[in-house]
Design brief:
CATH architecture of the largest domain: Orthogonal Bundle
CATH superfamily of the largest domain: 5' to 3' exonuclease, C-terminal subdomain
Strand content: 15-25%
Structural class: alpha+beta
Radius of gyration: 20 Å
CATH topology of the largest domain: DNA polymerase, domain 1
Largest sheet: 5 strands, mixed, barrel
Number of helices: 10
Strand order of the largest sheet: 1-2-3-5-4
Number of domains: 3
Shape: globular
Number of strands: 5
Helix content: 40-55%
Order of helices and strands: EEEHEEHHHHHHHHH
Distance between the termini: 40 Å
């Protein structure tokens, strides 16, 4: 799996960039947001986060300016039935990542269906299947009295299959029972249901 490609721009058009790396030119499909952000010019250095999509009759490389864009792309194709790479790219081209996340968290089907290729039913399915997943990012962005150990424990519980709301409640109960606990202890207490 090709996860990142760093090289020189050999050619660029909106929606795709040819990246020369190790004497090989890789065609990388990119959302418009990535293309606009990077403004790739021939001969310049470029560094893309990538996802390699393999089908029986093709190998396609998708590129993104940052991990956040790639994560949303992967959430869409992995978690939402009926969404493939083409529609995921359309979503990223039509909405900024922050706007997409807000639309999902707020249940804004009309905002999502404004993206070309996304109908009302597909927008509702995206919201239903991603609402709990997209909100996870807020755990890292939150400020206030949440400690690093609490945030780490919450993310670990989510990775273990907890819904975000349940993970937060478990962490809060664990911290109430053992204030000042480190993340490993919070996780253990959370798994025990304390």
């Amino acid at each position: 799996m090709i996860a990142r490609i760093k090289g020189e721009v050999w050619g660029a058009l909106p929606g795709r960039i040819v990246v020369g790396a190790g004497g090989v030119g890789y065609q990388v499909l990119v959302p418009v947001s990535t293309y606009d952000r990077l403004n790739p010019l021939e001969g310049e250095a470029i560094d893309l986060k990538t996802y390699q999509h393999v089908r029986e009759n093709s190998l396609t490389l998708y590129g993104f300016a940052n991990d956040e864009e790639r994560d949303v792309f992967l959430l869409l194709i992995d978690r939402v039935s009926g969404i493939g790479p083409a529609i995921a790219m359309a979503v990223l081209s039509g909405l900024e990542v922050k706007m997409f996340k807000q639309a999902v968290v707020n249940g804004d089907a009309a905002g999502l269906s404004a993206v070309k290729g996304i109908g009302k039913k597909t927008a509702e399915r995206i919201i239903l299947e991603l609402k709990d997943k997209v909100g996870v990012v807020q755990t890292w962005e939150e400020t206030g009295d949440r400690t690093d150990a609490a945030r780490d424990a919450e993310m670990a519980l989510i990775a273990l299959g907890f819904k975000q709301a349940d993970a937060r409640k478990s962490v809060d109960r664990a911290l109430k029972a053992n204030p000042g606990a480190e993340s490993a202890e919070i996780i253990r207490l959370g798994l025990r249901g304390i």
